[in-house]
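Hi P.,

Sorry for the delay on this. The queue was packed all week, but I finally got your sequence through. Input first:
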Amino acid sequence: MSEEDSAIELDLEGFLRRLNSESPRARVVLTSGLLESLLRNAILLRLTKNRSSQELFGPNSRFALAELAKYAHALGMVSDLERQSIQMLSRIRNRISHNWDVSFEDAEIQKNAGNINLIDLVCEGSVSEHQKAFWRTDYLGTSLVEEFANRFSLAGPGIGIEVPHLSLIKIDVSASKKEFVREARS
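Then the structure:
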């Protein structure tokens, strides 16, 4: 493992540690922001290094999470299901960020969280809909941060993504287990 790869892991580890002390709303905003950075950097690695690339996808880019996911999808870096799930996360993040009084009890947030098809949430007993919405959103954000940090660090400039995309993230809340299921590659 190179020093650069190690730095990515340390940043990821520190990010996840810090995330544990944040509110549910802040967790969504922070994971979405890191996903934007991961996608932006991965896209830049695949483009010619010039001013236009930097203007479009550099740190001052106007593209938000949903648009970056579309570009990554067009480049084959994320699957249909991953892009669709990121779209739902982006909608939830926007609702949370632009409405000071909204929570996971909000019907629109619950609907969008319910449409995150990448997450298979298993929980025993009766769990409120707002708790399920939070878990689906939170597990999606943290799982994709972990997945993309690893996936995009494995592929250097000009190298195609060979890591199979995710087809499902199985979450057993009561047992605190997470399983990444990958698409079969031909």
